[in-house]
Amino acid sequence: MGRIMIESDLVMRVHEKDSRQNLHKALSSLPAPSKEFEIVLSEEESKLLKSKQASETQSIITDDQADLDAGQLAEMEAAAEIHRLKQTQAVQRDLPRPTEINDKIMSNASGPEKLIAEETLYLLHYDAIHNPTEDQLVAQASGSKNSSVQHHESFLRDYRKRHNFHPDSSIDNEFSTESLEEARDLINNEMLNLITEVLPDKNNMNSEEFLERYSKVWEECRRRLIFCSSQGEYLEVKPRERRDDEKFASVKDQVDFFEKQFKRYLKFVITEKKKKEDKMDNKLKILLGGYRTRAQTLLKQIHETVDIIELTRIELETFNMLRRNEDIAIQKRILTITEEVNRQKEREKKLQAQYDDLLRRKG
Fold it and tell me: For residues 88 and 120, is the Cβ–Cβ distance under 8 A?
């Protein structure tokens, strides 16, 4: 019976092997599969695909938000630059301006000088409201009457009434860029004409020589004149010839003036040094950025290692203390056990002696 089962099993295996070989031959005789195929879509599916491709193309063409923000920022900067170019030269160059404007300069002027003085006062009052300096803001906050915004606005209202200005007019909408350029050209031409008139020798002296002579006079004036805030005017420091009808700067005015000059110079030096330090710091960040990152990583690892070492040291000291305590306890336990053993020996000895005595009595 067992033999028959073994033979039938062998027959089945041979039959399966033949079947696999026949199947392999049949499959190998089939032609190779072709990878070329064509997908045919319906009209609705093709329309949907075209609309999807068009929307993707439109989304690609749409500007990025960063580009839009950059364009808006550029437009804002251009508008701010146009607005800055329409301001006075004192505002454009960030020149110092008086905290208290003296409106009495028109009292002794006449003709063209009065017009120039009046226009100068108008610009000073306008800039004090719309483009105030730090000193002017401090003066306005202090509550000074001649430095208050109400005082400047009152002058501007009177000026506009005298000249029939529109109530809502301002420098930006009064003058265009072309008008300002034309006015600047007229001023430059007038300055050239004035230089030509005051030159002692028109043929032998040029504008550079005149500018050099003017610079010397300017430096002499700067050296000998200071602005006295207490009197609101420039006074001479060391007069060549003292006269009774002239005012001169007192020692207190000189100290105040030079103190302000020193503070201004100190602020300028600190600002310049800070700019240089920031610039150098940025260069070092770029140059040593990788080293700084690596140093920070290593420093963090060092701190972690130090913490682990400290924790390990505490654990070691704890276990050492436990070991010392355990050594002391072991000695105590040994003495206690030894004493207990000795007592047991003595007790056993006594009991053996009693037992021996009892045995002798019994016998």
Answer: no
